[in-house]
């Protein structure tokens, strides 16, 4: 009799534990990171890709708070890293952590193919920058459709530095998504400072204004991000963590 009672107690305890774990798992938020697959800096013969800080800082800012993160690229597999972002002069605590994070580096080698992911599986989407997105994500219809779907599903969409380039052809109800919205992104003066004004296919600041965005900026290389409803944009690498913090706040506000 005592054994039966003890067994009953154990079963009930285990059931409660499983139910609690399942409930917590359901509450765990999930974010999709969309990263460039493009590695050529125009016709310069130099390499480009994503900028390490703009990936690492938001990744850790979200992951350390319990957010689950999947990574997707247009081509799948290993995305190219801009070699200049690996320069010790550009190092931050987040990039140093990234450099020795074997689990994350292995995850990057096996990114999902963008065409095979569904917005319904995620609570938000985040685009890190680097010059790569100016060539592929800006013109990728799969990416444009995915952004529009996240937005119409009332889910946050976040971009930093050159990543707002991915908004170039995104439309909702026939209008550019950025039309009439507060936005920021890599400035014309910052592009001039890195000597790539005549190399890039377009300037992020000009494109956002042309598409009707209410563009604003801080001084070059200063941390700056703006939020307009579900749309979050950051100006440059220094703005990466600020964008992630704004995204995290929106995720935490959603039940």
Automatic annotation (TrEMBL):
It comes from the Bacteria. The keyword Transferase does not apply. Residues 1-21 form the signal peptide. CDD domains: GATase1_Hsp31_like. The keyword Lyase applies. Pfam families: DJ-1_PfpI. This is Type 1 glutamine amidotransferase domain-containing protein. It comes from Flavobacterium polysaccharolyticum.
């Amino acid at each position: 009799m005592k054994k039966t009672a003890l067994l009953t107690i154990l079963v009930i305890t285990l059931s409660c534990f499983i139910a609690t774990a399942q409930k917590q798992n359901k509450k765990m938020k999930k974010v999709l990171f969309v990263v460039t697959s493009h590695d050529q800096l125009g016709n310069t013969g130099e390499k480009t890709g994503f900028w390490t800080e703009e990936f690492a800082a938001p990744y850790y800012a979200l992951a350390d708070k319990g957010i689950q993160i999947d990574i997707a690229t247009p081509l799948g597999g290993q995305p190219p890293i801009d070699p200049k972002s690996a320069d010790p002069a550009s190092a931050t605590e987040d990039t140093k952590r990234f450099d020795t994070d074997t689990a994350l580096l292995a995850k990057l080698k096996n990114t999902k193919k963008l065409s095979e992911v569904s917005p319904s599986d995620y609570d938000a989407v985040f685009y890190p920058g680097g010059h790569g997105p100016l060539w592929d994500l800006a013109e990728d219809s799969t990416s444009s459709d995915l952004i529009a779907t996240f937005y119409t599903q009332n889910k946050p969409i976040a971009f930093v530095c050159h990543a707002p380039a991915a908004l170039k052809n995104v439309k909702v109800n026939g209008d550019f998504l950025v039309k009439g919205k507060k936005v920021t992104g890599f400035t014309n003066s910052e592009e001039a400072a890195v000597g790539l004004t005549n190399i890039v296919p377009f300037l992020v600041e000009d494109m956002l204004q042309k598409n009707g965005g209410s563009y604003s900026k801080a001084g070059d290389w200063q941390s700056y991000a703006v939020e307009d409803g579900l749309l979050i944009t950051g100006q440059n690498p220094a703005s990466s963590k600020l964008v992630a913090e704004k995204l995290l706040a929106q995720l935490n506000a959603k039940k």
